[in-house]
Amino acid sequence: MPHYNYLIVGGGMTADAAIRGIREIDTQGTVGLIGAETHPPYNRPPLSKALWKGKPIERIWRKTLERNVSLHLGRTANTLDLAARRVDDDLGTAYTFDKLLLATGGTPRRFPFGGDDILYYRTLDDYQRLRALTQDKQRFAVIGGGFIGSEIAAALAMNGKEVVMVFPEPGIGARLFPEELSLFLNDHYRQQGVEVLPGQQVTDLQRADAHLVLTIRDGKTTNERTISVDAAVAGIGIVPNTQLAEFAGLPVENGIVVNELLQAGSSDVYASGDVANFYNPALDKRLRVEHEDNANSMGKRAGLNMAGETDPYHHLPFFYSDLFELGYEAVGETDSRLETIGDWSEPYQKGVVYYLQNGRVRGALLWNVWERVDAARELIAQPGPIEPQSLKGRL
């Protein structure tokens, strides 16, 4: 029964960032990591960005082993006994700990049909499978018009593949972008050769010889039709992996609920990354954020606090994406249902979109505008009231 001063459940970016935090303070304490994937921690964003632009796969590795860590890979933690300070995995191995970090991430949402013929894109293995499919397949369905769907559709199209993009919203990124920008992206993707089918729900997928046949339903008329493709990729969101916390009776609500020190209902148990529900003072609300900046900054803060610091996590994370030649960074509450104010120096090519509510800026979308995230954070932290006209040229 291995014992660790610091035990981390989860093998992603958050876990590696936590180890870096621990090692800044405690260079000698024993650290163990239980990861469901067979790979050591790696950077996830390149899987839908840089690797499709020719960057070498070797650059994704985070070199976790260089920090004197015991890795237990290809294993899933099944039970957590807080009284015994013990975690048991699916292979029957028990681990005991002094401090525990739950960095369990999330599991992709799945359709009740299609089985393994639909690739739910999230991991390095998923990237390698999709890359292999591109060797002899030409026509791909991308199901979902959100963050992952928009990136994968662009990546495949830039690699010479026929792409048909299917999603129920009226436009690409409709939950994030204001309507006019979302509809612009529909046209932009079509100009890049992507067949964009908004307002369509995938209701079935069947294999027909070497092809896949998708049944799609129009959201307005409920009419159904079929489309034939060689392969299908889906990005329809994730569900936070809270089972271990629930088993132990820790607080769970849209993720694992943590306090400002990232403790999860126990002074010796922490949670961080995609799975953690945390309070942000700038927005005065709880958030659960599924992006790289949060994984790195929150993971490191959890590691530092586990090793003895007691600093609150008040960071407001940002995220970014590349869509063909377009790119953006976004910070705060970027919800298209809020009031939006566009400040474009070149319509839909370069500018800032502000998200407002009750006289305050809640979020900012920096569209082909760079190195302004910190300034946007300062603006979001201001109590207001903010006059919309005063935002012209602000960022």
What is the compact description of this entry?
Helix content is 21%, strand content 35%. The protein has helices at residues 13-25, 124-136, 147-158, 179-191, 243-248, 292-306, 373-381, and strands spanning 3-9, 31-35, 70-73, 77-81, 86-89, 94-102, 106-108, 118-120, 139-143, 162-166, 195-197, 200-208, 211-218, 224-229, 231-234, 238-240, 256-257, 263-266, 269-271, 276-280, 285-287, 318-323, 326-332, 339-346, 350-357, 360-367.
Q: SSE layout and pairings?
A:
Elements: E1 3-9, H1 13-25, E2 31-35, E3 70-73, E4 77-81, E5 86-89, E6 94-102, E7 106-108, E8 118-120, H2 124-136, E9 139-143, H3 147-158, E10 162-166, H4 179-191, E11 195-197, E12 200-208, E13 211-218, E14 224-229, E15 231-234, E16 238-240, H5 243-248, E17 256-257, E18 263-266, E19 269-271, E20 276-280, E21 285-287, H6 292-306, E22 318-323, E23 326-332, E24 339-346, E25 350-357, E26 360-367, H7 373-381
Parallel strand pairs: 1-2, 1-6, 2-3, 6-19, 8-15, 9-10, 9-15, 10-11, 17-20
Antiparallel strand pairs: 4-5, 5-6, 7-16, 12-13, 13-14, 18-19, 20-21, 22-23, 23-26, 24-25, 25-26
Helix pairs in contact: 1-6
Question: How would you describe this protein?
Answer:
The protein is an alpha/beta fold. It has helices at 13-25, 124-136, 147-158, 179-191, 243-248, 292-306, 373-381; strands spanning 3-9, 31-35, 70-73, 77-81, 86-89, 94-102, 106-108, 118-120, 139-143, 162-166, 195-197, 200-208, 211-218, 224-229, 231-234, 238-240, 256-257, 263-266, 269-271, 276-280, 285-287, 318-323, 326-332, 339-346, 350-357, 360-367. A hairpin with a 5-residue loop joins strand 13 and strand 14 (224-229). Helix 1 (13-25) runs parallel beside helix 6. The chain is globular, with a radius of gyration of 22 Å. It starts with a strand and ends in a 14-residue tail after the last helix. 42% of the residues are buried.
